[in-house]
Amino acid sequence: MSRTRLRSAVGLVLAAGLILSAAACGGDDDAPPATGNEKVTLVVNGLPPATEKVNHERFLANVAAFEAANPNIDIDPREGKMDPQTFQAKLAGGQLEDVFYVYFTDPAALIAKRQVADISKYLKEFPVTGQIKPEVLRVFQDDKGGTYGLPYKNYSLGLLYNRELFTKAGLDPNSPPKTWAEVRSAAKAIAGLGKDYVGYGDYSKSNTGGWHFTAELYSLGGDMAVNENGTWKAAFNNDLGRQVLQNLKDMRWTDDSMGSRQLLEWADLLNMMGSGKLGMYVATADNIPTIVNEFKGDYTSYGLGPIPEGKGTLGGGEGYMFNAKADPAKIRAGLKWLTFWFASPDRIAEENKWASESKQPVGLPEPAIWTGEAAAKQAASDKQYANVPQENYAPFIAAMGTIPVKLEPPNAQAIYAVLDVAMQKVLTDRNADPAKLLADAETQVNSILAGVR
């Protein structure tokens, strides 16, 4: 879901020893040779605003370090990230940065419209990119394997739970529920602890309800929308979609394990978790530091498990792509910049040390974009500088490689707004009919998807 996300500034940085090698002249798979002394000014965005003083200064410090190591490259950093409302105007007006920030939901459309540069031929000069998880890099590739950008961070939804409440309710805090039936049982036990205890919480307002409906549908192996011969259609009005709503309805009305307060949106569940009265909800790992820092929680109280059923989970992330007008010198300079900071395992320790000293969380299970030696370096550094109880996230980590991560549907926010209504109804009306709610939502979502190309 595209929304403000509080994240740690754990930059991923390449060792200073990386040397840019010139590609030899050759066939179609070779990049144009580098001259070695080209002066390049590279315009990049993603600079945190000055109001985020610590992260803003860290970004500029990395710019200075990069320029010192690469005297032929000047970085012109700009604030801002991907904004679909202004992107086309910036592109048409020649104002788009050379290297620009995107969410994982952006690359497919940009690649299809040929609005980004193909960087495939240059990647052999930056071997560290070969250690990025293929499934993560695939977000930035076309159907032929051409690559147009690099990931920076990723995330996926799991089950966030209060370990202390699990213990009080006679549940094993080291073994969170693996199925929705187990979630229901655990929620009932936690709600039985007494007045004001809520076993399981869920959203239903400001598009967050549709967002969670999507995650819970993915967990059962379902889809929100499918592309049939170039036409997108809703795909949730079926047994799996009805199962999501019926399960919530049963927990809310039959078990009374979801509390009477409903119409919840993003901050509400974090606040409830921080209060010590909520047992579980579906969330990303970065909710944990927000609960601690903004809602008086304690890191030791929270565990993270995989999403129940595990047939899929909703995920996303951030990365950088290249302006389609970027010449070879700028593409190389951009890759040098990204592999210096945003896509490198070799200075993870330095960044983790800085994050720890800045009292930002180190040791959360995601981001996790690396494989092989790079992943081992990240794990070792995370363990060395961890300031969160990593053992509390062991169930999530153990399942990470086994659960497919799926992205948001097209026009996600509009679709989520429609499904908010279905979530609201089952959580506020004991007579709500999941089948009718999904049939009505299907009609509306198909109208939304009719404009997607």
UniProtKB/TrEMBL annotation:
One protein family per Pfam: SBP_bac_1
Entry keywords, A to Z: Signal
InterPro entries assigned to the protein according to its UniProt record, in alphabetical order: Bact_solute-bd_prot1 (IPR050490), SBP (IPR006059)
Listed SUPFAM superfamilies: Periplasmic binding protein-like II (SSF53850)
Signal peptide: 1-26
PANTHER family: ARABINOSE-BINDING PROTEIN-RELATED, SUGAR-BINDING LIPOPROTEIN
Protein name: Sugar ABC transporter substrate-binding protein
